[in-house]
Design goal:
The protein has 342 residues and is an alpha/beta fold. It has one domain: Ureohydrolase domain (Arginase, Chain A). Helices cover 39% and strands 14% of the residues.
Amino acid sequence: MASFDPDAPAAPGSGLFGLDTPAASAGVRVLPVPFDATTSYRRGAAHGPAAVIAASRQVDLFDLRFGRPWRAGIHTAPLDPHIAEWNEAASAAALPVIAAGGSEPGDPRAARVDEYGERLNRLVHDWTAATLSDDALPVVLGGDHSVPFGAIVACAERHPGLGLLHLDAHADLRVAYEGFRWSHASILHNVLEQAPGVERVVQIGVRDLGERERERIEADERITTLFDPEWGRARLEGSDLRRLAREHVERLPDLVYLTFDVDGLDPSLCPGTGTPVPGGLLWHEVMALLEELVASGRRVVGCDLCEVSPGAAGDPRGESWDAVVGARLLYAMIGAAVAGRG
C-alpha cells in the first residue's frame, strides 16, 4: 500500500475503490454475491455487485466522517462462477413459482431453489469463517437480501452474543415466503431460528410488513424495531434524530453485525431496488446513525450491503444512480467498521 496514491485515478480493471490489496494483507475483504433468485417483485440485484464495483472506482477515498478507510486494505474476492450458475438455475425454477403467487408444500421447483440457496449459504459461511480466522472484516456485497445468511451465522459462531443492526424497509420475518425457505423476505426469521449466537436484533427503517411479522416483533424479546413512521414523525417535529438513533444503538451488544438492504433508504436514493417503499432514511440520517454506532464504542465484526440494483439488464459500467449511491454507502459502512476496530 506504500506506493498507492489515493488521489490518483483508479486503474482500469482495478478492484473495489480502485484498490488491489492482496487478501493476505487486507484488513477488509469483500465477497461479491450476484444472486437474486428469490426476488419477488423487480429483478436486477444480481447485477448489483459488478455495478457497485465499477462505480466505486470514481469514489474519492478521503472520507469526511471516517477518514481513510482504504488504509486498512480492501480486497475484493474474485467473482465465483458457481454463484452465477446457481442463480441462473435457481431463477429458472423460481420464476414460474413467483408468477403463480407462490408454491404449495412439496413443490419440487421450490425445493430446487432451496437447494441452491443452501449451496450459497455454505459458500458464504465458509468464506466468512476463513476471513474471521484471519482477523479481517468480512463484507458481503449482494445480491438480494437472502445472500448474507451464511455470513451472519459465521459471525455469530465466532462471536456468541452478537447483535444485529438491520436497516431495511421490510422486517424480513416471513416464513418460507412464496414457498422458498431461503427467501430474501425470510432472512431475519432464518437468523433468529438458526443462529443462536445472535442475542439481539435492532431494526431501523421498517415500514412495510405483514400482520404475522408485527406479531413476531411484539412477541420476540430479542427484536427491537424502530418503525419508519416513528422516525418520520420525529423528523417532522424537529426532534433530535441523533438521540433517537443513539437510544437504539445502545440496545445492541458490544459486537455488532450490520446488515443493510438499500430499500431502507428513501427511494430517491435507490430507485432501481427490487421492492421500493415510500419513506425511509435520508442520506445524512444514515451517516449520523453510523457515526453514533462508532461513538458508542461498539465494534462491527461483519457487514453486508444488499439489493442495489442497476436494473434488470444491468449496467456493467456502474453508471446508474443506484450503483453510485451503493458504492458510497459501502465505503461509509467500511469506514465505520474500520473506525470501530481502531
